[in-house]
Amino acid sequence: MKYSKLDAKDHAREHMRGIWAAALNPFNNDGSFNEAGLRSNIRHWVDDLDIQGLFIAGKQGEFFSMSLAERKRNFEIAVDECDGRAGTIMSASDQNFDTVLELARHAQDCGADYIVVHAPMLHFVTDPDDTVYNYYKAICDQVDIGIAMWSHPDSGYLMSPELCARIAELPNIVAIKYSVPREMYVRLSHMVGDKIHVSTASEVEWLDNIEELNWKLYLCSSPPYQLQTKNDRRMHDYTQLAFQGRFAEARQLRDSLDPVRRAILDTKPGGKPQAHGKYWQELLGQVGGAVRSPLLQLTEEEKVRTREAFEASGLKL
Hints:
Elements: H1 8-15, E1 18-22, H2 35-48, E2 53-56, H3 68-82, E3 87-91, H4 97-110, E4 114-118, H5 129-142, E5 146-151, H6 161-167, E6 173-178, H7 182-192, E7 197-199, H8 206-213, E8 217-219, H9 223-226, H10 234-243, H11 247-255, H12 258-267, H13 273-284, H14 300-311
Parallel strand pairs: 1-2, 1-8, 2-3, 3-4, 4-5, 5-6, 6-7
Pfam families: DHDPS (PF00701)
Organism: Parasedimentitalea maritima
InterPro entries: Aldolase_TIM, DapA-like
């Protein structure tokens, strides 16, 4: 641990900044975990793209298809490769509470910077606030590592800004990935100030949130390594311009990425986000690989459409 439990918020305010990306995990065609491929991707993301932190073993990484041992190994690889050059936030999300705690403790022990835990799916519950508060408090009570909340529609409900602000008072809650309509995360941002980082995964809204809400953290999805190459770091560059208060220049650079965004959105099948993301990585020269069952692979026709859109997008390789 690089900080004490009571210093977690201060540590995150100082170190949890910039662009943090959610890693897709490369799997081989036989379904095995491609550790060498992940290491190669991490080195590219950190060294070439200057991504400041990585979200490991989340939904993008197909944690739901991985064994507990694989998820722990995923943490260890990321810590080893980042080696202080980029931050790490490990997903300890799971429906089994003991698994959440085991992963949280492993992240703490192996040198991760933070963990993220998504709000649990609740059965037969119509008023979730006290239950969800108790859920996060129980985790905070048992580990020292800084914790990010994560609220998204997959849980079957959205955490209200009022509930998030209440949980934010817990000592080692440091952030929230708030996958909700903009009016909700704006309200939460005003409620908590700089007590915790508030972020959402929408890259399109990132610049506006720096300018209007003084956000310091993009947490996080795959655009940081899908919209950029070693020779074309426009997301990084418009972010730096925005942090310097040069918003007109930042907006012009951000908008220049619209053809790339459209190429991704227009070719991504609704049921195959991870498979599409991995194929896009391969087109960029990164390690993509297969998705695990029961997820669906891209068809050859879908690959052709994606490749044609990629080639017309204007990204510089």
